[in-house]
Amino acid sequence: MDLTPKVKFLGMTFDVTLMIGSVVSALIVLLLVFLLTRKLSVRPGGRQNVMEYVIDFVSGITGMMLEKKESARYLSFALTTFLFILVANLLGVVVMVTATAHGPIPSLGITAADLKLTDSVSWFKSPTSDINVTVAMAGAIFLYSHFAGIAKSPLGYLQHYVKPFWWMLPIHIIDEVSKPATHALRLWANIFAGEVLILILREGTFYFTGIPLFAWMGFSVFVGCIQAYIFTVLAMVYIAQKVGEE
């Protein structure tokens, strides 16, 4: 396993690889949306068609969960979530940056003891291949869905925990607690496992692992797209359960 550079700030430790990957993912999404939405016209061209297709696709996700007026409020959120996770998932398939450390780097948390295990330092990977990122995103969606439900109808929010029977309260609580855990673990496990296998195949002899490597990279692109879709759908499901009319 490659070493991960870390920095300490205000008593907290930050993973440099994750910060680079997350910032790059966000910048790529920003740049893509900026380029695809320049010079909009009534008769859309190629770039505008691509953006409109993506918006229609995500609008279909929100429309499945909420009424038309309500779903429009969450379109920007769902679009941003889908694009960020999609780009973050695919970055590790396309780009993995590692370097060789020739000596300890205390400022990045790399010690001589670490170098005895390996001298390979990871500088870039998919942010979603780290469980801390997926837990943070799933946790934020979990908290927001509850706050949105309370803000819309405090009494209705509390009543759903005892429906259809009061003795189902513990079951509802377990269900709510398990949602962010499964939401985060599903995304992380799929992306992490894919990157680990890519690293293993990359270290092998090209004559034996070359074809399996390219085949798995192609499959990883498919998995990355599917997982971005699933994460966004589940996010909207959890929010719709709290703010939906039914």
Helix percent reads: over 70%
Distance between the first and last residues' Cα: 48 Å
Tally of discrete structural domains: 1
| Average pLDDT | 80
What's the story with the biggest beta sheet? 2 strands, antiparallel
Order of helices and strands: EEHHHHEHEHHHH
Give the strand order of the largest sheet, numbering strands 1, 2, ... along the chain.
Answer: 1-2
CA gyration radius, whole angstroms: 21 Å
Continuous helix count: 9
**How large a portion of the residues is in β-strands, by DSSP E?**
5-15%
Specify the structural class. Answer: mainly alpha
What overall form do the CA principal axes indicate? Answer: globular
Unreliable sequence segments? none
The total beta strand count reads: 4
Describe this structure in words.
This is ATP synthase subunit a. The protein is mainly alpha-helical. The chain has one domain. 71% of the residues lie in helices and 7% in strands. The protein is built from nine helices and four strands, in the order ββααααβαβαααα. Strands 1-2 form a two-stranded antiparallel ribbon. A two-stranded antiparallel ribbon has the order 3-4. It is globular. The model has no long low-confidence stretch (mean pLDDT 80).
What does this entry show, briefly?
Helix content is 71%, strand content 7%. It has 246 residues and is mainly α.
Write the layout of secondary structure elements.
Layout: E1 6-9, E2 12-15, H1 16-36, H2 46-65, H3 68-73, H4 75-94, E3 97-100, H5 112-117, E4 120-124, H6 131-152, H7 154-159, H8 169-203, H9 206-243
Antiparallel strand pairs: 1-2, 3-4
InterPro entries: ATP_syn_F0_a_bact/chloroplast, ATP_synth_F0_asu, ATP_synth_F0_asu_AS, F0_ATP_A_sf
Protein name: ATP synthase subunit a
Pfam family, one: ATP-synt_A
